[in-house]
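Table S5 (text form). Sequence records supplied for joint modeling of the two-component complex.
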Amino acid sequence: MAAMAVALRGLGGRFRWRTQAVAGGVRGAARGAAAAQLGRKVAVVDYVEPSPQGTRWGLGGTCVNVGCIPKKLMHQAALLGGLIQDAPHYGWEVAQPVPHDWRKMAEAVQNHVKSLNWGHRVQLQDRKVKYFNIKASFVDEHTVCGVAKGGKEILLSADHIIIATGGRPRYPTHIEGALEYGITSDDIFWLKESPGKTLVVGASYVALECAGFLTGIGLDTTVMIRSIPLRGFDQQMSSMVIEHMASHGTQFLRGCAPSRVRRLPDGHLQVTWEDCTTGKEDTGTFDTVLWAIGRVPDTRSLNLEKAGVDTSPDTQKILVDSREGTSVPHIYAIGDVVEGRPELTPTAIMAGRLLVQRLFGGSSDLMDYDNVPTTVFTPLEYGCVGLSEEEAVARHGQEHVEVYHAHYKPLEFTVAGRDASQCYVKMVCLREPPQLVLGLHFLGPNAGEVTQGFALGIKCGASYAQVMRTVGIHPTCSEEVVKLRISKRSGLDPTVTGC
Amino acid sequence: MSLCPGWAGPLTVEKPRPNPITAAWPRPRPHGDPTPPEDLSAAVWSLVPALYAPCASRGWCCSGWPRLETPECLSTRPLLGPFLAGRAVGHGGVKELFSSLGVECNVLELDQVDDGAKVQEVLSEITNQKTVPNVFVNKVHVGGCDQTFQAYQSGLLQKLLQEDSAYDYDLIIVGGGSGGLSCAKEAAILGKKVMVLDFVVPSPQGTSWGLGGTCVNVGCIPKKLMHQAALLGQALCDSRKFGWEYNQQVKHNWETMTKAIQNHISSLNWGYRLSLREKAVAYVNSYGEFVEHHKIKATNKKGQETYYTAAQFVIATGERPRYLGIQGDKEYCITSDDLFSLPYCPGKTLVVGASYVALECAGFLAGFGLDVTVMVRSILLRGFDQEMAEKVGSYMEQHGVKFLRKFIPVMIQQLEKGSPGKLKVLAKSTEGTETIEGVYNTVLLAIGRDSCTRKMGLEKIGVKINEKSGKIPVNDVEQTSVPYVYAVGDVSEGKPELTPVAIQSGKLLARRLFGASLEKCDYINVPTTVFTPLEYGCCGLAEEKAIEVYKKENLEIYHTLFWPLEWTVAGRENNTCYAKIICNKLDHDRVIGFHILGPNAGEVTQGFAAAMKCGLTKQLLDDTIGIHPTCGEVFTTLEITKSSGLDITQKGC
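The corresponding C-alpha cell record, covering 1152 residues in total, follows.
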C-alpha cells in the first residue's frame, strides 16, 4: 500500500494544488483531513499492491484492513469462545463443545472492514481531500506521478509531500516454498475458508496474536520461534504470555528455524525445520503456514532517490528529524515507514496531526515518542507503557530501580474455575523517593483498557506514592495496580489474597 | 550508630505514645526492605520481638522480617509488666520499688545467664544505655535506677504500669468488613493486640453470612459475579455473530449460578478467618455493645455475654438495607442482603429504588431473561452525574427493564406462598392521587441503607451520631467525639461508601495509631463504577456539582459518543457508549470530572483516576497516545466541546 498526502502548490503540471499530500493509510488520511480542515488543498494517493497470495483491500491502511481492526475482532471471537466455556459455570445451559465457523466470522469481520474503507472515503470527500487510487512515485522533489486504471498518467505537484506508505510483511528469502505456499497477516484476515492446522513462524506480536486467536477458535496451531519472543518488550512478561498460550493449547517449537515448505500431493504443506541447537531436522504437516517474521517499509517503489529523500541503508526506512522532516525540507514522513518510530496506529495518527498543525496551523508542538502505551492482544492481553524492567535497569542501574509486582486473580476467573497463574502486574519505579514510575506492565483481561489511563499517569510524572494514594475501583483487575505493595527486592510472595 | 535518632540519654516520657522505642525503630513494613541494617548484630534483632511484644500469646507478628530466635534466657520469660535487666549484686532498689507498687518484676540477671554479655550489648544498642539495671515497663524503656525513681515520683511509672494492665487489648474493632479487617490486620502487623467483633444480625428474611462484611457477602463480590453472568448472556448472543454455532435456546439456571457464587464467597470467608489467625488477631463472632468507657460487651449467637476492654476502639459496623416501613415490607420483600443467596430464581421482579444497588440488581436480573420493573420515586443514581444516570437508565430500558417513574409502594400483600410466591404491590403516584397495582414474584427493596450504630451503646460512652442518618461524624483522622474511639467505612459520616475507601482508611488509621505514619486518607477524586448492564465509571465531579462549584463559564466539557469495536460485528447499537470530561478553564484545563459509559468502564476508569491524582489536564490527554483499538483511547482524542453544540454521533467508524 502506498499512501501519500500531497498539499499541492501553484500553477503548472496537470493538477495543481495549494498544499500537497502524498500518503495513504490511516496516517495519511488523518493528515490529509487535518490539512484540509486548515484550509489547504490536499490530495491523498493510495494504492494497495496485492500480496503475493493476491490479497488486496481498500482505503485505510494496515490498521484498518490487515492489522489492529480485524486482529482485535478475531481476538474477540476467540475471547467469546472462552466466555462460552465460562457460561455454564454461571448458570447458562450451553451444550459444549460449541463449534466455530471461520467463514461466518471472516465474512462479518470483512464486512466491517469494508464499511470502514467506505467511511474513510466519505470522510476525505467531506473534507474536500482529493483521493487518487493510484500507485505513485516521485518524479522530482515536488512532483509525484502515477498511472490510473485506464492507463492515463497523472502528475501531481505540491508544496509539501508527506510519505506514509507504511510497511508490508516480510517473506523469508532463502526458504524454498516460502513465497509460494506461505501467507502473511496481509492474507489471514481475508481468507474465505478456515486456515485449518496452522504453523505460525515468528515471535513478533503479530505472530503471537494470530496464533492466539487461531487457537482460541479451535484450530490446531503451532508457533515456531527461533530466538526470543516479543523482542523489545519486557522479557518476564513475554515469557508469561508464552506460558499462558502454551497452557491454553498453542504449541511452541522453540529454537527452531524452517528450512523448506513443500506441497504434498494431498494438498497439505510439509514444513521442514532445523533445531538450531542440535542441528536436527524435523518435519510437520500443516494446512497453512503464516509468516510473521517482521515487516519491511514500503519505500522501494517510490523512487525516493529522484526526490533526494534519504533512507537507512539497513532498514530502507526513511530518516527523519524530530519534526518528521526528511532530508528534503518540504518532504516529510510519518508512521511505520520512518526509521526508529514505534510502529503503532495511534502514534502515526498523532504524528500526522501534529505535523499538519506545525505546517499549516502555526503550531510548534513536537511529537513525544516516549511513554507510548501499547497492548498485545494475545489470549491473555499484555498492556504496557514506559520502560521494561531490563531497560530501566540498564538506564538507572539495578540499585536504583524498585519493581513492585503482584499475581492476582480476576474475580470473574474464580467462579469460572479459570487458571490465573499468569495474571500479573508489575510497576517499575525509581528507588529514590518519590519513586517516579518508569514503566507499567499488566497481563490480564482488558489490559488495553487498564493501561490507557495509567499511561496518562506516567505522562503526568506519577510517583509510586501517588499511584498508591489512588483509591481502587472494586472489584476490577485494574485496582491491582493501585494496590501494589510487594517489591521484588523484598522476596516476599506477591500473590494477592482476599479483597 | 545512633539507633534511636529521636531518643538518646535519660528518658523523660511525656505520654505513653508514641512509644519512644517502637516509634524510633525502623518499622517492619509489609512492602519494605526486610533486611535489617547490616551493622546490627543478629542478637539485637532476636531481642526485638521479645521487647516489643512481651507476651508470646500476643502473637508478635513481624511480617516481612526474618524470624530470629530469641536468646534462650529470654524466650520463656513472661515479660508482661516491668522487665529489668541487671546484675545479681543489686538493682538499686528498683525491684523493691515495683514490689511496693504491688507489681511483680521480671528480672534477668545478666551475670547469671550464659549469653548475658550479648544481651547487655543488645540492650545498650537498643536503648543507648550502657549501665544496669535497665528497666522497661509495658514495652517502654524507662531507663536506669535514677530514671525509674524519677518516673515513680512524677507518677509516670504508675501510668505506664496501668497502661498495660488496664486493658485486655490495644485495639478492639467492631465490625469485620472491609474497613475493620484492614485496620485489624495492619494494627496486628504493627505488633498490637487486636480483637475483631463481628456479628451478622440475620435479615428479616433470615439471611445471614460469614466474616468479611457487606462487600464480600452481599455486595461488590456477588454483585459483580451476577453482573458477569448477565454479561455472559450477552456474550452468548454476540458469539453467534463471531462464528460460534449453536442453535438451542440457551436458558439460565439461577441455582447453578448462585451455588457457584456462594461457594466462592465461602472460600473468601474462610480466607479472612485464616488471615486473621495468621496475624494473631482475635476474632469473636459476637455482637458488640459498649457498656462503659473502654469496655464492650460481646454477645454470641447463644446469648452468652463476655466483656472485653481495650485502649482504643474502631467502629466499622457498616450499613444494612433500609425498609419502607409499609404494610408487608419486612414480611414479604427481600433486599440485597437476601438476593445473592436466594435459593430459587426470583422470577418476575419489582425493584424498588433508584440507587446503584437497585439499578445493578435490576440490570443483571433482566440479563438472565427475567421480567424486571424498577419503581423510582424521583431521580436515578442520586449524587451521580445526572446526564450519565439518565443514559444508564435509558440503556436498561432499551434492554428490557421497565421503569415506573414517580411512584412509591404503599402496601405489599402476599397472594401465594412459594419459591417464589406471588405478591401484590399497591403503589401511589408521588405527584397525584393515582394508584397502581402489580403482581410480582419478588419485590426487592433497594431504597438506601442505614448505619448500624443505634444499638451498640454508643450513647453510654458519649460517641455522637447524626441522629437523622445514624452516621458517626469523624474528623480528618477518623476520630469520633470520644478521642479513643474511631470510625471507618460506610458508618462514618460524609465519606464515600466504597470498599476500597474503607480499606484504605482502616489501614491508614492503624498506621497513624500504632506506626510512625501521619498519612491521612485522601477522599478527593475517589473513582467508582456502577456495574449496570452498560457500566458507568467516574472519578471527580458530576457536571452539576462542577457547575455549582466552579460556575458554568469557567468550565469546558468535552464529550463524545463512541462505538466499541467489539460491538460493531456483534451488531450492537452505535451512539450509545459515551465519554465526558469536565475541565476547569481557570486551572490549565485541569480535568475535574471524568465519566465513561461503556464496557469495562471500571477497568478504564482506574488509570485515569491515578492520572487525576497527578493533576491530569486536557493538554496531557491530547498529548497521550491512545491504545488502539480500545474504549479507553477515546479520551485521548476528545475534540468536541459541549458548549459548541456540535453533533457527537458517530457515523460508521
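Note: The longest strand of chain B covers residues 305-315.
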